[in-house]
Amino acid sequence: MMEKGKRGPLLQNDIDCSSLLDELQTIWDDIGESDVEKDVMLLQLEKECLDLYRRKVDQANRHRAQLRQTIADSEAEIATLCSAMGERPVHFRQGDRSLKEEHKVIIQQLEDLRRRKNERLSQFRKVREQILCVSTEINPEPGLEIVLDESDLSIRNLQDLHRRLDALHKEKNDRLRKVLHHLNTLNSLCSVLDVDFKQTASEVHRSLVGPDESKNVYSDTIERLISTTQRLREVKLQRMRMLQDLATAMLELWYLMDTPTEEQQQFQNLTCNIAASEHEITEPKSLSMGFINYVKAEVTRLEALKASKLKDLILKKKIELDELCRRTHLVAENDCFAESLDSSLVLEQIEAQISILKEEAFSRKEILERVEKWFAACEEESWLEDYNRDENRYNAGKGTHLMLKRAEKARAVVSKIPGYYWGYSLFIRGVNF
């Protein structure tokens, strides 16, 4: 037993077990311990040493198992993180490394993956918040939910969210462009109609008078904006028709009363736009109620002036009608000259007769030209007869040669009269030459 104790391992501070046993033997000898008691105490000492070694071995085994379990758990977590991030798992085990070295390497890699996962998760949350924000700006009704699945944080999934965000941004920009387009149209209409644009736009939605980035682009806002624009466009068309009717009446009154050009200049823009289309009228306040009332007042003034000058106008139109009848060899109806009729009605009927005669004269243009030639030839024939009866036609004197030339020309014209007669007869019967 003593020899076995002497073969034990070295203790701390280079104290050999054998030297300690020798010292213990000396102490026991001094005490007077028996050999049996010494053996019992040595056996007890060896047992305590074995127990201590066993505890250390067990502790080392537990530590080794703990390291292996930690490494295995870390590898499993790394595999999970790589799968969640869409990356291929990394293998770390090498046969020439101790467990502590392997544990250190894998822990560093695990911490790096955790950091990258948190960054990726932060990116997902940021894009998710942006999607929800833009979606709320487009549609006020809740319903869009984006659940973040931390088991799928791959780049592909993140790119899908970015594409979704880009699509929402595009839709928002399209809506904003549509709102700005309708606002420009509304502003133009308000300018032409002399309506307060800001008040009209704020009645649709108060954000429409603010900066572009804060404008509301909800579907119902766009619909109300379109409805308001359409309503003002109808008002514009209604006022256009009203002004065009007033302009037509004004032109007729100017024509009837021979209004000077200088007096017409102040309404030149109005009369120039009498046949303009809706999109061509863009001048500010050109369709305001103030301007329309101003034109109405002018038309009323002209109508009052027309009533005072109606008799002069009727006389002037009668003279024009008589001259037209004389030139066209037509006869006007006499019903329009009845004294029992209203003066304005008489004037309208005379103008209608003038219009009818002008149309009739245009349709008989060729006949009238032939008749004019016939009358001219007859006049030349009458002059030639008077000339032939003049006994002094050959006497020398001033202008005699001119008279001779006219006589020659008259004989040539008179010689064509039979041809005119037969030609007119055939023309009247419908024969074309």
Keywords:
433 residues, rod-shaped, 15 helices, mainly alpha, 73% helix, disordered N terminus
Describe this structure in words.
- GO terms for molecular function: microtubule binding.
- Keywords: Coiled coil, Microtubule.
- Belongs to the MAP65/ASE1 family.
- The chain has 433 residues and is mainly α.
- Among the domains are: 2-84, no CATH class; 311-363; 366-428.
- 73% of the residues lie in helices and 0% in strands.
- The protein is built from 15 helices and no strands.
- Helix 3 packs parallel to helix 4 and helix 5 packs parallel to helix 7.
- The chain is rod-shaped.
- The N and C termini lie far apart (164 Å).
- Mean pLDDT is 79; it is low at 1-14.
SSE order and pairing:
Blueprint: H1 2-6, H2 17-31, H3 35-84, H4 99-138, H5 155-193, H6 197-204, H7 219-257, H8 261-264, H9 268-272, H10 289-308, H11 310-328, H12 343-363, H13 365-389, H14 400-414, H15 417-428
Helix pairs in contact: 3-4, 4-5, 5-7, 7-10, 11-12, 13-14, 13-15
Structure described in brief:
It holds the Pfam family MAP65_ASE1. 73% of the residues lie in helices and 0% in strands.
Radius of gyration: 60 Å
Structural class: mainly alpha
End-to-end Cα distance: 164 Å
**How many individual helices?**
15
> What's the pLDDT, averaged over the residues?
79
Instruction: Estimate the helix proportion, in percent.
Output: over 70%
Q: Which blocks of ≥5 consecutive residues have pLDDT under 50?
A: 1-14
What percentage of the residues does DSSP assign to strands (E)?
under 5%
Principal-axis shape equals: rod-shaped
Q: What is the quaternary state of this protein?
A: single chain
Q: What is the tally of beta strands?
A: 0
The main sheet comes to: none
Order of helices and strands: HHHHHHHHHHHHHHH
